[in-house]
Amino acid sequence: MKQLVLSTFSIFIFISVFAQYPEIKGVDVRVKFDHKIRDWDGFGFNYVETAQTPDYKEFPQEYGGFSLLDENEKSEIIDLIFGEDGLKVGLVKMFYDPFHQNESGGTYDHETTTKNMREFVRKGLAETRDRGADLDIITTLYGPPAYMTLQKVIRGRDLDPAHQEDLADYLVSWVKFLREQEGFPVNYVSLHNEGEDWDRWPWDGKDPNIGRGHDYNLYYTPELVNEMMILTNKKLKDAGLNDVGVTPGETSNWYRFSYWGYADAIAENDAAVDAIGLITSHGFFNGNYATRWFSDHNCMGTELIREKRPAMHSWVTSTSWSKMDTKNIKEMHDNIYSARVNGIIPWAGIQRPEQWVGGDPNPGSAFTVHEDGTYEIRRGYYFYKQITRAGQPGAMVCRTTSNETQLPVIAFGKGNSNGTDAFVVTNMSDRWNKPCVITITGTNATEFKAFRTNEAETEKYAEIGTFKVEDGKLVYEAPAGTVTTFFANE
Fold first, then answer.
1. DSSP readout, 37-90?
2. Which residue(s) pair with 30 in the sheet?
3. Measured distance CA(382)–CA(80) in Å, rounded
4. Residues in CB range of 24: below 8 A, 6 or more apart
5. Which of 25, 315, 324, 401 has a 20 to 30 Å separation from 231 between CA atoms?
6. Cβ–Cβ contacts within 10 Å for residue 215, how many?
7. What's CA 298's distance to the chain center, in Å?
8. What is the mean pLDDT of each run of 10 residues along the chain (490 residues)?
């Protein structure tokens, strides 16, 4: 029998012929439409009207700016937000200010301080239904009337225990008004706006600290959240509002919800677990460990509750527009994939800067209304449009990977939405283009139509062409400072 003998030299020749250095052709991106993570309820919009004034008669604050616009301008904005060619948002947040009742058992006035917000939502709902869709509305308590607090002033820090029933009734009355008088599809009521932040008042709680840039708040301990959530849920049911869920309010960020005791208190209380209808928090990010405002997109608290209620949805109910650039889209990405939410509503999308006391700490927006009655569409609108149209209500969040930190990718499978399979590629670099080789699985689409917005504002949701999928891969070079959305051609 012959033996095959290879010399050292022949082995070297064999390796040099058949083993070659691999060529990296770009960022390795994987979009997995066949790996569905969770239901997606949609992106949303928030109109803020009365947010800070301690005396509405003296200062009838109207931060959203609709009161300055004519009917044509209002129609243009409504179409840009809710219309077929606009953002096509599916979620709306409405604040509930402290001026709707003056005394226990007194009459409610739900109209005076909310005229413009209700007009905005009314027009938006009509536009949405005209295109065959609907809205999902959450209303958030901005702060209770003065008489319900121990301090007996607007923005008093502490709820008077004797008025817990009054506060629950206050919430239910507003929900009934919106549903029955306005015909709004209000499905959730949220207990507070950043009510966990005890440091916004002096330690004795005697000064409401209003008029210094803060919006309305009431301090909620974890125990009070549970008490009010259970009580409000009962009163909603007693009022026949069985399909309205109550939320535990809105901490400033997911870190605080997870680590300041709120999620633990709920998870350890069976009645609170039964009462909760939606997990909510603001989704702000701050990566500086040295500040008390540190906040990551932590999902620990949400997952604690989902251990008891596995199908429970969660929403970001406020997050900063800031400069609304690629970094903000990354914030959206992390809220979706790290905080594991089912919906996102940014902070006030239309703003009248002159009406915010002390200068707005979150100055970005989709629209700015000027005091002369004109408005402008800001860069934030076009960046937000990149993701809102991709993540339509009823879609599915799908798994993605990218081996480049500056290139996060978001994907939405069509699911039960009126959209298509879609994915969003963000290049956060302000210097370098990023060539990408995008492997796509779980879709029958052989080509994707793409739209792009850039930080230079030379492209504003501009159509940039159709990209073919060949051998399961789509090749694309993402320019620096851009967000590009790819929609499956069906």
1. EEE--EEEEEE----S-S-TTT----TT-GGGS-HHHHHHHHHHHHSTTS----
2. 401, 439
3. 10
4. none
5. 315
6. 20
7. 15
8. 44 54 91 98 98 96 98 98 98 98 98 98 98 98 98 98 98 98 98 97 95 91 98 98 98 98 98 98 96 96 98 96 87 97 97 90 89 96 98 98 98 97 97 98 97 97 98 98 96
